Amino acid sequence: MREEHGERNAGRCGGCGIKLQSEHKDQPGYVPAQAIEKEIIICQRCFRIKNYNESSSITVEQDEFLRLLSQIGGKEALVIHIVDIFDFQGSIISGLQRFIGNNPVLLAVNKTDLLPKVTNWNKVRNWVQKEAKEAGLKVEDIVLCSAKQSSGFDRLLDAVAEHRGKRDVYVVGATNVGKSTLINRLIRDYSDLDQELTVSRYPGTTLDMVHIPLDDGRAIIDTPGIVYPSRYSELVSPEDLGAILPDKPIKPAVYQLNEGQTLFFGGFGRFDFIQGERQSFTCFISGRVPIHRTKLEKADELFEVHGGELLSPPSRENLQKLPDFTRHEFRIPRGSRMDVFISGLGWIKINGENGSVVAAHVPKGIKVMVRPSLI
């Protein structure tokens, strides 16, 4: 009997059923080489869930993620979609509704601790509601929360209890949005993982989905984090990731600019005020990325000579690894309140009422857009 069990699960995780490998720690199915010889092996992800009540963010390619998402449409599910308020348009899953059918969605808006302390939260909630609708999402509820400060999670758990019924709970999100912290909280509140993780405890588990059983026979399903290459956080080196991702509330930096002036955000990007009356621009970026003001006519030369040195981070070596910069020009209408949003880096609020022409320069592929002002 023992031999049959071993044959049936050869090379597969005894917890989630994924194919095992011992070469890449950051990819699904990883186990240390010395564990391969054990009779019942569980991958590192399941091991950490079992022993530390911890869920890790494992990523998969976008096509594979969408294939996994499409399975939800045929099931009775409550979907928790986690987005990052600092990178809202970069972390929202466009077309989510198309894949999950009529299943209800809770939108968990994480990292609210990064917004300035004087933020009007009712305005933020209304803004999120409009932007989610613009993205084609039908949401049952919006919960503003902070994984770091553990705020808003009680409200989210209440919403789960209210809308779940007898459904499974699927948690979806991009990388670096705080999905693991939420999963860990759900595990603590809804699940008991004292028993061994075996295939029998996880019937029907599909590749890269970790099923965490609930007392009523349903499950929390942790889906892998989706990678969007259009986000700065997916492009930079690990050392630079710590610079662009804020770790405390953003202090807005206000600059009074005349047309023909430029702001550099370290060596990560540049903002040009091309045309318009003198006006102020408010920058919402990590405090660890210095802002340098110069004349537009000198900007190209300054970047070529000092990129990665005076204009850093990133270092010159890391800057050379980034794609060539692309210019994005925008005409801001008179009387509008708009942000120029750079995915993963932050945004610049246009404060002038008389209209303007501006441009942003960032590595090719990074999402840049104009949106209604968040703050």
UniProtKB/TrEMBL annotation:
It comes from the Bacteria. PROSITE patterns: G_CP. Signal peptide: none annotated. CDD domains: YqeH. Pfam families: MMR_HSR1, YqeH-like_C. Residues 66-229 form the CP-type G domain. NCBIfam families: GTPase_YqeH (TIGR03597). This is Ribosome biogenesis GTPase YqeH. It comes from Paenibacillus woosongensis.
